[in-house]
Amino acid sequence: MRFEELERQAADDLRRSTSEVTVPRLLAGRRLARRRLAVAGGAAAAIVAAIGIVALAGGGATPDPAAGGSSSTSIDPAPTTTSSNIAPTAQPSIVWSVEQPPGWLRTDRFASGSITVTMATMNAEGRSAVECSDPARTPVAAVGANDVVLSVTLAEEAGTLPVWPGAELDPRLLESELEPDGSGCLGPVAERIRVGTWAVGGQRIDLLAITTEEGDTALDDLLWETARSLRPEPTSAGTPGCVVTRPTAAGHTPPDTHPRLPVDPASRWYGTDALFTPLALDASHAPRKSVWWSTAFPGGGIEERPPISVVARRLDAEVPPITHRGPGTNATTPEEGWFMLAGIFDPEEPGCWSVTATYKGASLNYVYVND
Amino acid sequence: MDVPAPLRIPEPFEPFYRSDYRRVVALIHGLTGSGWVAEDIAQEAFLRAHRDWGSVGLLDSPAAWVRRVAINLATSRFRRMRTEARALVRLGREATAVTPLAAESEMFWDEVRRLPRRQAQALALRYVDDLTTAEIAEVLSVAEGTVRALLHQGRTRLERQLVAKGLVTP
User: Fold this and answer.
1) Could you give the 3-state DSSP secondary structure of residue A259?
2) 3-state SS assignment for residue A181
3) Are the C-beta atoms of residues A233 and A199 closer than 8 Å to each other?
4) Helices (H) and strands (E) in chain B, counts
5) Closest chain B residue to the Cα of A19, Cα to Cα
6) Opening angle at CA A220, ends A215 and A221, nearest 5
């Protein structure tokens, strides 16, 4: 085949590849209430802060930090992004209150049940506390160009627990110049990342840090995403005898031909070189597409339809197993290399599920609870 | 007396979104090799366009703006990692509808992704969207002469790579 011919074929093929893609409904329902926030005595005289309020319960009152006191509102945690393939999750209602204590830009509190999350944000005057030796690097947890989240705490009725230094910091943060108090510096990237997940009082929350110059919208998104991540901690209640699978802290280490860690920092590889898959360290397995790696899999260019079979059996009830007899398909990403996809998803039906995959004589099994 | 400038009103967002969404997914699919990452990034790019439509909609080419944002998102290593992790979880609820490519096309795009980043982006914009040199220059925020060089160097190098792999005849 001539080069020009392959050019045309590959371009046509790529365009056709999206012909079945559904254009998701975008932004049906998200409203942002913007409010100018006066900073008392701050170096930045006036910072536009965005306070994201989605589907306000109880009349739609917007917290007004500029008033110098405090205000609060109940939030129905509807998804902020309403793309059709983002399913809303059941979450408790959250009360979000904002205060402006002297010397601080703002303090946001998210209360849900017995748990309260406090995020204290200081303006530019407080930034000296997290100066970076390399000026090209950005202080961790900097919110916008002038703001720094300096203190975050999780509290429950029994007392207050400091969030950082935490147990499971995002390894990408650990690769940076992280100090023992949790402050530190990242490279010159504009990126929101997850610092870690903390669980207390039967609930868990994803704490997000941001290193960006995006400004007010980033602050809004950060606070809201943190708030809406409040959710009940997964348990195996109702499924007695279900022993879920957890990877070891280090996880399986595949050979150098494969990525050392999965892309999700809260996961580790589980399995052997012959067959492995990412599992959450805390066993909080979210049903997902069936994805598998193997050193015996030569890549989609050579083995387009790998002979992988997967069966999911419910251990706590008599229901027919869900079986994919193969072959599967394949995919690749720059960080994960080639991997196999079986033609099924983990079952979303509640219960204790055992998933077993078989590929070229190797088998791997994991058990998870979907509650 | 000063005559006030005529008030400009952006075109509606929805038709633009519906007409360009799949093309942006295809563009990012070509640049990342992942259908679900492409969908996620395209959604993020259009989300931003919608959020700032009051100004983006007044640009000469909102299409160039949204492609630039999508390409930048695909370039960010951190972003891509986070997107992939999130997409893996999200796939548990709905699969990507991006159809796998034929083997030869997949290998072709593999080789495109091995090119220097700017060359790969310029070629993808030409192949997927059939953009002119001037339009590619606007998306990539570079001069037209630079685009011509990127396209020429990229195609030459790509052909060499494909010949070396035995996919095309010299």
Assistant:
1) coil
2) coil
3) yes
4) 9, 0
5) B22
6) 100
Read off the amino acid at residue A117: V
Q: In whole angstroms, give the CA distance from residue A215 to residue A219.
A: 7
Taking only residues 60 to 79 of chain B, the set having a beta carbon closer than 8 angstroms to any beta carbon of chain A reads: 76-79
What do you get for the CA distance between the two ends of chain A, in Å?
54
* A297, A339 contact by CB (below 8 A): yes
Closest CA to A53 of A26, A29, A89: A29
If you ran DSSP here, which 8-state letter would residue A170 be given?
A: -
pLDDT tens-digit series, residues B81-118: 444 444 433 333 344 567 888 889 999 999 998 888 88
Q: CB within 8 A of A134, min separation 6: which ones?
A: A177, A185
Residue of B nearest to A194 (CA): B82
The three-point CA angle A361-A365-A369 to 5° equals 160
Q: What is d(CA B19, CA B124) in angstroms, rounded to the nearest whole number?
A: 18
**Burial of A113 by CB count in 10 Å (0-12 exposed, 13-18 middle, 19+ buried)?**
middle
Phi, psi dihedrals of residue A96, rounded to the nearest 5°: -115, 120
Residue A338 has phi, psi (to 5 degrees) of -80, 140
Residue partners of A105: CB distance under 8 A and separation at least 6: A37, A39, A42, A47, A49, A121, A122, A123, A147
Facing residue for A189 by CB, picked from B39, B76, B93: B76
For residue A98, list its beta bridge partners.
A71, A108
Q: What is the ipTM of this complex?
A: 0.85
Inter-CA distances, A138 with A100, A143, A174, Å: 25, 10, 14
Nearest alpha carbon to residue B124 among A358, A10, A351, A177: A10
pLDDT digits (tens, 9 = 90+) for A219-248: 555 666 666 666 655 544 444 557 778 787
Report angle CA A59, A63, A68 to the nearest 5 degrees: 140
Q: Do A15 and B23 touch (CB under 8 A)?
A: yes
Paired residues of A60 in beta bridges: none
Nearest CB to A6; choose among B97, B99, B104: B104
Give the model's pLDDT for residue B123.
Answer: 95
